[in-house]
Design goal:
Number of strands: 8
Number of helices: 3
Strand order of the largest sheet: 3-4-5-6-7-8
Number of domains: 1
Low-confidence stretches: 158-163
Length: about 160
């Protein structure tokens, strides 16, 4: 005959294990997933494997932007730990593309800035910036150089902020 005793700590352990698996399953089912941005019905934007200048220019071309051959600026930036109102607004622009900078808090990323040469209906200087972390685009924007200018998502649809 085989006798097995179960301690209260074993019961608690298995209860916690079962509840954890149930919670994880619920999160997977209920949390919405972001689909990659679709530029057109047959085309999806590639955000990864961005290693060279040509890759960055090709990435921006996926949105229809023609930019300068070399970046005007290449600078290391740190995503802040706490987002203020301005950064929250900027992150909302990223969410339009299915991106979220809150995943990269306290991370050092590189921002590349190019001059856009084909922005429609605007005569001033326009820049395209992309944020790269480990060869992946994690954010970016299109903005004017004017003091009272605009900032919009890489899609360039509508002006997100204009003064």
């Amino acid at each position: 005959m085989f006798i097995y005793s179960v301690k209260a700590s074993s019961i608690r352990f298995f209860t916690v294990l079962v509840l954890s698996v149930a919670l994880l399953t619920a999160l997977i089912v209920l949390v919405p997933t972001y689909e990659p941005l679709s530029v057109s019905a047959s085309e999806t934007v590639n955000f990864s494997k961005i290693k060279t200048n040509e890759d960055r220019i090709s990435f921006l071309a996926q949105f229809g932007w023609t930019v300068s051959e070399q970046p005007l600026e290449e600078v290391a930036v740190t995503i802040p730990d706490e987002f203020d109102a301005v950064f929250m607004e900027y992150n909302n622009l990223q969410k339009e593309l299915g991106l979220d900078l809150s995943r990269y808090k306290r991370r050092d990323v590189v921002r590349y800035t190019y001059q856009v040469t084909n922005y429609p209906g605007y005569d001033g200087t326009v820049y395209a910036s992309v944020l790269i972390y480990k060869n992946k685009v994690i954010g970016g924007d299109i903005c004017s150089a004017d003091v009272n200018g605009f900032v919009t998502s890489l899609k360039g649809e509508g002006v997100a902020s204009q003064q």
